[in-house]
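Suppose you are handed only two things: the residues of a chain and a line of SMILES describing pyridoxal-5'-phosphate. What would the bound structure be? This form records exactly that question and the answer produced for it, so the two can be stored side by side and reused later without any lookup.

QUESTION INPUTS
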Amino acid sequence: MSEHEDYRRAEIVVDLGAIRRNVEKLCDAVAAGSDGPAVMVVVKADGYGHGLFGSARAARAGGATWLGVADRDEALDLREEGDTGRMLAWLGMPGEDYGPLIEADVDVAAYSTQQLEEIVEGATATGKVARVHLKVDTGLSRGGAPLSTWKGLVDAAAKAEKAGHVKVAGIWSHFACSDEPEHASNDLQEEAFEAALEVADKAGLEPEVRHLANSAAALLRPSSWYDLVRFGIAAYGLSPAPHVTNIDHLELEPAMTVHAKAALTKDLAIGDAVSYGHTFTAERPMRVALVPLGYGDGIPRHASSLGPVQIRGHRGRILGRVCMDQFVAEAPRGTVAGDEVVLFGPGTNGEPTAQEWAEACGTISYEIVTRMGGSANRVAKRWTDDDGSLV
Ligand SMILES: *Cc1c(COP(=O)(O)O)cnc(C)c1O
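ANSWER OUTPUT
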């Protein structure tokens, strides 16, 4: 049946070749290397669930000159594993010891003067110049200095730069609605970013990279490119704006496949009700498969009676509630225990995609892939590549 019979219960397969090819396509799409911006691939949260190290290697091989992470430890893990390229870590905590990041040559982000002071402390302690990316909040109201405190942060950074503690390597911000290209806030955020850049310019700052765009903005708003774009979800082959069809021509390849073996099959009679709460009742005689994955493995409980699966080339769906370790799925006649059940994959063999799962569950593909595997960590993960070089 399956090409890979070497797993016992269920498996998450990550195609690193797909990530590499996606990044190559994304670099081409923004003309990186010629007139276009440099490319960062964001590998936070274990590479959106695809594995930190494999994703990072594939991203570098595809042409990413930068990697982006949220947490300090993600950056330090990458350095320990041998990555030596440009890297930005952007989610510092109050009282953070920036020494190890500065020592490891990781660029850091400052959202406030307090954070900048902590970065200066780290620089002083290590005797190195910290490379800082000042973040301005242009309308997301999440990280970054609001425009009211921006000038204060810029002036403090200019002073710290003169004193030799930091180099302002970047000025950056993040969109709220880039997946809705027509949303009025996109233009407003770009205007606010321009105003923030002017304040920095007047203070004498000369950032190496100004950056604003995530995947959706990079693909849909060339005006937001500046010197660097930050690709996350698109690198993993999923659309950042699923309802915008002019991304389709890129033919990005979803890199993650999740499959399992049916633990058991049985036939239901009319009137048989399924799983906790009996939320599904068979209205016809039907074959079902017991799939050994549940919310303990990252399957959303919101997928109850909605999540799509493929068995023996046939599409079916989850029947009744998703439990902690298992769910029941519609199966074609003839299905036997041990048959492969594909939850999602690239979609090239008619199997569902993570995007379909997201729509079924009322969420976004980002959440589906990032949570897959779950905190119990009992689903085997395997990394493949077309030529084996990245595994
Ligand atoms: C996660 C993240 C990105 C990547 O976003 P995608 O929509 O996945 O491309 C870019 N920038 C920041 C600040 C992020 O937190």
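WHAT STANDS OUT: The chain has two domains: 15-235, 256-384. Residues 155 and 203 are 7 Å apart (CA to CA).
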